[in-house]
Amino acid sequence: MDTNDSLRVASLWHSMHAISQQLSPTTGCSEIELLEADTFDLHIFQSLTGTKLFVVCKPGTQHMEALLKVVYELYTDYVLNNPFYETKIPIRCELFDINLTQAIQKDRVALLGR
Length: 114
Hints:
By secondary structure, the protein is an alpha+beta fold. It has one domain (3-112): Beta-Lactamase. Helix content is 48%, strand content 13%. α2 runs antiparallel to α3.
């Protein structure tokens, strides 16, 4: 996905999340964690600070929650500690990209079950 597609998905997800909280028949329902479609699954991780991370994957892909937690750890280590990063804009941080690629390659079996 390009940047605009990513922003559209995030905007759509934010709206769905807000509506689901109001419509949920279950008391204390706080968030949607997974959207399953015919051609993809959309997983979300929301941190305690409200930061939301998404991953789009093939239907039925396992261990996405663990992957999202690793991504969040890298985000806190490399993006939030970057003095040039501005919140609420797409992440453009070379160290984050490099370490994310390395983490996925290193732990591909553990994270993705492959």
